[in-house]
Design goal:
- It comes from Shimia aestuarii.
- Keywords: Flavoprotein, FMN, NAD, Oxidoreductase.
- InterPro entries: Flavodoxin_fold, Flavoprotein-like_sf, FMN-dep_NADH:Q_OxRdtase_AzoR1, NADH:quinone_OxRdtase_FMN_depd.
- This protein has six helices and seven strands; from the N terminus they run βαβααβαβββαβα.
- It has 179 residues and is α/β, with parallel strands linked by helices.
- Helix 2 (48-54) packs across helix 3.
- The strands form two sheets. The protein has a five-stranded parallel β-sheet with strand order 2-1-3-6-7, with helices on both faces. Strands 4-5 form a two-stranded antiparallel ribbon.
- The longest helix is centred in the middle third of the chain and has 19 residues, at 63-81.
- The chain has a single domain (3-43, 79-178), classed as 3-Layer(aba) Sandwich (Rossmann fold), CATH 3.40.50.360.
- Helix 5 (149-158) links the parallel strand 6 and strand 7.
């Protein structure tokens, strides 16, 4: 049984190149189970309650702190359940949509998706693969103006997902584009 997490981050719905590309990739994966997460529906930014709660042991959290982490716990559980993560995103102003960065902030949690060790941070979401498709609106992937693809590869690796393929909306890999 394979489980796929399908994440879309574009603010556009109709005629969204990244949504069309990610849907095509999901269909090609033939996963047994697909978990769908549309970030355009909203992901909250971190606040003090959330931040304090992440450093508070679960058994000592207030109801307000537990509520502040509820969505984060759900997002992390989706990642933990998935074998493959497909992310479809647009590139806005040479980087990620704010909602995708908010998702990253929600899932990058010390002791949950990564751990600090004597050798440095260690990702805890190992054995997964990610396929990211980015509609750039004309900014070449891998160029000096692309601040999205390297960051996504880095942050996914930081949480342990090191098998990462970055594609443009036509399906060319970053390596093919750079060649």
């Amino acid at each position: 049984m394979t489980t796929l997490l399908h994440i879309d981050a574009s603010a556009r719905f109709a005629d969204s190149a990244s949504r069309q590309a990610s849907a095509r990739i999901v269909a090609e994966q033939n996963a047994d189970t697909v978990i769908r997460r549309d970030l355009a529906e909203g992901v909250p930014f971190l606040d003090e309650t959330f931040t304090v709660a992440t450093f508070t042991p679960a058994e000592n959290r207030t109801p307000e702190q537990a509520a502040a982490l509820a969505l984060s716990d759900e997002l992390v559980a989706e990642l933990q359940a998935a074998d493959t993560i497909v992310i479809g995103t647009a590139m806005y102003n040479f980087s990620l949509p704010a909602v995708l960065k908010a998702w990253i902030d929600q899932i990058a949690r010390a002791g949950v998706t990564f751990a600090y060790t004597e050798a440095g941070p260690k990702g805890l979401l190992t054995g997964k693969k990610a396929i990211v498709t980015i509609a750039t609106g004309g900014t070449p992937l891998g160029s000096d103006f692309d601040h999205a693809s390297n960051y996504l590869r880095f942050i996914l690796g930081f949480v342990g997902i090191t098998d990462v393929t970055i594609l443009d909306k036509e399906g060319q890999t970053l390596d093919q584009i750079a060649a």
